[in-house]
Amino acid sequence: MKVIDKVINWARLKSPWILHFNTGACNACDIEIIAALTPRFDIERFGIQLKATPRHADVLVCSGPVTRQIRDRLIRIYEQMPQPKFVIAVGTCATSGGVFDGCYNVLGGIDQAIPVNAYIPGCPASPQAIIDGVVKLLQSLEESMK
Amino acid sequence: MSQSIEIKTELENKFDWLKDQVRITRENRLWLDVPADKFFIIFDYLISLAGFKELCTITGTDEGDNYGLMYHLARTDGKVLNLKTMVPKEGGSMKSIISYFPGGTIYEREINDLLGVKFEGLPPGRRYPLPDNWPEGEHPLRKGWEPTKLSKVEGIKEAGEERLNMPIGIRSEISQPTDFSLIRRRDDVQISIGPQHPALKEPESFNVTLQGEKISGIEIKLGYNHRGIEKACEQRSYIQDVYLVERICGICSHTHSTCFVQAVEEIAGLQLPKRAAYIRTLVGELERVHSHLLWLGVAGHEVGFDTLLMYTWRDREIVMDILAMLTGNRVNYGINQVGGVRRDVTPEQAADILKAVDKLEEQTKYYIEVATEEQTLIQRLSGVGKLSKEDVIKLGTVGPTGRASGVERDIRRTDPYAAYGELDFKVITSDQCDVYGRAVVRLLELLESYSMIRQVLKKLPDGPISVRAPRRIPVGEAISRYEAPRGEDVHYVKSNGTENPERVKVRAPTLANLQSVTKMLEDRYLADLPIVIAAIDPCFSCTDRLIKVEDKGLMTWEEIRQYGIEWYKKQGVDFKNVKRVI
Asked: What's the pTM value of the predicted model, to 2 decimals?
């Protein structure tokens, strides 16, 4: 591994940039994700920053079951992210479809549309759980890079 | 009750064939079935002479050979008259109510999409709320419809995809291929915003047409969050539905579950214990506090005042802790059950709540001070997103958005539910008619909520917190209203005597308010769009609707240029020395 790659990897682990996308959620997970970014939980102390565009993001944080209407958009956003990219599914619906399993306009969890790296269950997932999930994802990345 | 009987007698005197047709199920609730050919005679009378000037929603039902259409009409004193008519499935159609309620077309479109009822005179427009390429002839709310045909349908391609791949900014047909075809387009500038956009926290898409920097047309495309909850409610039992409707929206989850159980309790004839009513009110007001603080932060964020976002969300955690302590969960409280509430409030908890409310009140007073004295904020928000009182009444705008335009409309006051009839509170209004007014109304409402929480805890009666509810709910129907943080929420429940409801219809407040957004944005600048949309406190999880402001004709490229030059001239910019390049 070249020195420059090492630096990039270090930066990636120390400051992952996230993009939040609601794929049909009830808003509960979304407000908990925002809560994780605000002073009480302050996820920024891990270097995590919320970005406005997929082109700047390393991690896609999705909430909610995938509806038929949003599926294409989700894939498009995923494709716009630069490599390497990671996906976190926040909430029970994003993990498996949750209470909306079987609804005619719901396809299921996020993994029905794009590959997922980490699942954070909960209805809604609490900010603590979200932080824990993100940290676990980073740990597993760190190990895979060794 | 007496006033309801008056309405009934008046109707019977006016139309003798309505003798004993009007049913009164309880105070404020009237039901009337009329044949389709006489529908508009009654409809017209109710709106123009009997004062039923608000349309809550239209419910469509599938009843054998017919479709049932129920128009829920409301009066400012809280009376709701449910006017029902039947349309045959074979070749039947209904006249659109667009001339009475311009905003009612959305409800008609929804019924058209989900049930397949045809409406005459419904202007052409985008379908709602099903996905763009949903197969024709498939109507999920029809009885016996199964999603089997769809199970193999992968995702669905969005309509207009190819347009999105054209150069950014200007998307239109090129009138004539010439050497200057790129410049001599004849069209406005169109910008599409969303469904993923930093200013939007939820997936919804706005197609904005611009003339210069001014918005001339806006098309809102929703349905990204359409999950099919109404159908799912029919397939699940009442007990499961309480938790399902709670997940219509995570911010106003208590709203939806309370609204739903109120309707079910009314059908089942259950007498809600007083203590349960007070606990529901307590959680409802705490929810309003968290929602309004959340809104204040988001509004601050939209105008670039991120400090306010961080401050309010820090303080919001206080109320989130209280909600978690009371109900066991920060969001989606699950405190309601048919017949009462699941958890009681202990005296220790009450003491903690009072302490937290004191702290929150202190903080809120600080925000009020900021909002009323901070010039940057006042100047950014004043005069933005104007909505006159007349428009509020015409468009049926609800909640703080309507109250900020001077319309005193609050379900807690006009049609009291839970314990609101016994509490002392003010309905906050403002005559500002703009985003600033909406912010002030919400801030002052916070103080009212604190006072109500204190009253609830002081008056909290002793007794059981729930009554036993049957698993099978007797045949019947009910409509329930609730003042959500965003406005009036309406649930209609119809039961058929089994464990599962026959039909559940939800009208979320954002739907009523979305129709006013286009009005607020007319002739405003693009930069105002995020805050104007945020100012109605939209919740698209609850909603999934669409609307369109009529385009004001097309402008040629040259006209746009001229328009721009004139606009800048008015601002005092001189173009004399600028050479024309093209």
From this structure: 0.88
Average pLDDT over residues B177-206: 64
Q: In order of start, what are the domains of chain B with their CATH numbers?
A: 2-141 (3.30.460.80), 229-514 (1.10.645.10)
* Residue in B224, B320, B330 nearest the CB of A67: B224
Please say whether the beta carbons of B260 and B245 come within 8 A: yes
Angle at B126 between CA B121 and CA B128, to 5 degrees: 95
CA geometry: angle at B569 spanning B567 and B570, to 5°? 65
What 8-state DSSP symbol labels residue B252?
T
Mean pLDDT calculated for residue range B287-313 = 92
- B228, B313, B314 member nearest A104 (Cβ): B228
Collect all residues of chain A within an 8 Å Cβ-Cβ radius of residue B224.
24, 67, 69-70, 73
DSSP code string of B106-167: HHHHHHHHHH--EEETPPP----SS-TTPPTT--TTSTT--GGGGTT----PPTTHHHHTSP
Residue A146 covered by a domain: no
Question: What does pLDDT average to over chain B?
Answer: 84
Q: How far is CA B296 from CA A32, B308, B394, B497, in A?
A: 16, 8, 27, 44
Which H or E run includes B357? helix B347-373
Tell whether A129 is covered by a domain.
yes
| Domain housing A24 | 3-141
Predicted pLDDT of residue B193? 83
Whole-number pLDDT of residue B546 = 34
User: Would you say residue A47 has pLDDT above 70?
Assistant: yes
Mind telling me how many Å the CA of B564 is from chain A's nearest CA? 30
Q: What gap in Å lies between CA A64 and CA A74, rounded to an integer? A: 12
Q: How far apart are the first and last CA of chain B?
A: 74
Nearest chain A residue (CA) to B128: A69
- Residue type for B131, please? P
Residues β-bridged to residue B70 = B59, B84
For residue B182, what pLDDT is reported?
38
Domain count for chain A:
1
Å from B20 to nearest chain A CA? 41
B45 interfacial to chain A (CB closer than 8 Å): no
Nearest chain A CA: its distance from B244 CA (Å) = 7
Whole-number Å distance between alpha carbons of B433 and B401: 8
Place B162 in a pLDDT band, splitting at 50, 70 and 90. Answer: very low
Q: Which residue of A has its CA nearest to B330?
A: A126
A-chain CB neighbours of B223 within 8 Å are 69
How confident is residue B107, by pLDDT bands cut at 50, 70 and 90?
Answer: confident
Residues B265-289: tens digit of each pLDDT: 999 999 999 999 999 999 999 999 9
Nearest by CB: B150 against A67, A75, A104: A104
CATH code, domain carrying A99: 3.40.50.12280
Query: Binning pLDDT at 50, 70 and 90, where does residue B238 land?
Result: very high
pLDDT tens for each residue of A61-82: 999 999 888 888 899 899 999 9
CB contact under 8 A, A24 and B539: no
Q: What is the model's pLDDT at position B340?
A: 93
Q: Is B227 close to A106, i.e. CB distance below 8 A?
A: yes
The torsion of the CA quartet A89, A108, A69, A100, rounded to 10 degrees, works out to -100
- pLDDT over threshold 70, residue B126: yes
pLDDT of residue B542: 61
Average pLDDT over residues B281-305: 93
Q: Which residues between 537 and 556 in chain B have a beta carbon less than 8 angstroms from any beta carbon of chain A?
A: 539, 541
Are B331 and A31 within 8 A, CB to CB? yes
Least Cα separation, residue A6 to chain B (angstroms) = 31
Q: Is B56 helix (H, G, I), strand (E, B) or coil?
A: strand
Question: What pLDDT band is residue B167 in, cutting at 50, 70 and 90?
Answer: very low
